[in-house]
Predict the structure.
Amino acid sequence: MTDQRTAAGSVDFGRATVARIYDYLLGGERNFPADRAAAHQLLQAVPEARDIAWSNRLFLRRAVHVLAETGIRQFLDLGSGIPTQGNVHEVAQAIAPDSRVLYVDIDPVAVVASNEILMGGPHRALEGDFTQPELLLDTLTDSDLATVIDLNRPVAVLYCAVLQQVPDNRIDAVIAPIRDRLAPGSAMVISHLSAADVTDAYDETTVSTAKSVFRAQAATEITLRTDAQLGALFGDFTIMAPGLVPLSDWRPELSGPDPYATAPTRSPMHGAVATR
């Protein structure tokens, strides 16, 4: 885990990152030529990539809205990416001004951008790898970050469009330490590419090409999962209504129109919110 000063001097401008590709797809400005080139390759293979990104962002906002209304005041956004308008702290604070958010991302640009936006407020951004949960837990309990996130109180942990970067042989080790440490009243939010809907919507060549973009340009492997596999990640948490569903079907009335609301195909991403 590193602070903003370390992050600012450690950017590899020649390598794309998932966070900055995502930022470009959302219309952001915190991206570089390598990220834009990778995004253009992805759009050639999957022209709906921008819609997929926006659908995920809208789901994130709706999930935070619902959890803040249920009384959760702490949010831990893992693999948070680069902040855009209507990010977690803005949504949560609109409902509960005493909300606290800790953003964690491995991309130094995301961390610097987040802390610039958050300066002077109660929220923080931290450069860290969500696939190393033990290190993250040590950091949360042994530093001043405990004033932002107190793991002895209810916390909502957000894994939005990031767990597909974790291979099957690592997923339990990534999820379980944090999930099992959460206090009663906590929540988990997961959005993830759906194996079934991706296969239904795209042919094998398209899927392979899209995966190769992330592999070659961002050194990231993408893993698709079934609903059964995704449901198991919540452990003993109780999934809230309407369940594990395409993102456009998760309480759509709480945000602007999802790009897939009137599309002829379903969102290739599924998501759910669960509570302990």
In short: Confidence is low (pLDDT under 50) at residues 3-9. The first helix runs from residue 4 to 8. The chain has one domain: 4-275.
